[in-house]
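Tutorial, part two.
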Amino acid sequence: MPDTTTKLALPFIMPAQAQKHVTHNEALLRLDALVQLVITSGLSSPPTDPLDGQIHSVITPGTGAWSGHEGTLALFQDGIWVFITPRAGWTAVFLDEERLKLFDGTDWIELPLPSGAQFERLGIAAMPDSYNRLSLSSPASLFNHAGDSHRLTINKSGTAETASLIFQSNWQGRAEMGLAGEDRFSLKVNGDVTGWRQAVSITPEGYVRHDQRPHARASLNTATLTPAAGSFTGFDVLHLSGGDVALGSPLASGNGRPLVVSASGLYVLSLTVDANSTGTHTVHVSRNGSIDVASHIGGAGVSSTVALVWLDAGDTLALRHLGTIQYDFGYGKTELSLTLL
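Running the prediction step on this input gives:
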């Protein structure tokens, strides 16, 4: 018959044994130490002032009184160190790490997660809450393929709901892309002055719209005028406009207002001129009243000129006239169109 139990090595009281209480008490002390096992820390040398009943995991290389006892549990009991060999399957709380660990027969490891785990909330280096049930704090995230492909799916319950990705700067939303309250795919941005705006949208049929692209089709009110040589005419009406293209202050000539460009970039300008003269005439598209960025030379009737020009935000555009002839102004007559590429 063995002298100790199989799992915890508790000493048996043997037949005809003297001082049976000593053996019984030793078994109780060991049972008290190993049941609800708590390991204070993992050390390679004994602490200076150990407490009675305190247990440490002996780490290689063991020194001092722990030399030769690497991998065991050192129990301080009645002023001496008692060494216990852990068995595969034991679990213990490591106080210094605040972790529950499992002994796999060689090392103390953290308990593996079940293969089919389900959690109400999960935080990875971050605290989840009732709304952000999955929370991650990390310099990067990797979603790798299993097999050949990898897809990230974001689902919503219906057309009027939202399935999107939001990009923030210092916790302030700056951009959003996805299905935001509709089934068109859209890209929205948030400016300090403009607030949230939809920049690009794609219909379910695949049609692409640039909702904030600067553009305009402008003319004076319908009229027949003979501008003085060197004078400027502007515009009264924006038949089409977008992207914050607007009309500026009235021109000194009293004939309309200049177009004000809202964003820097490469623009296509289309100038249409309707002249009532048989002679040659010239009309310039003037930038800021001083630089001609497009010119039209023509005769009687309606003719057009197209130019590709760079314009800066805040630039103004007006028409500068050479010679003294009569023009018809208005929609489909003398007018200016522009679009940011």
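The first strand starts at residue 38 and ends at 39. In part three we will examine how such features are distributed along the chain.
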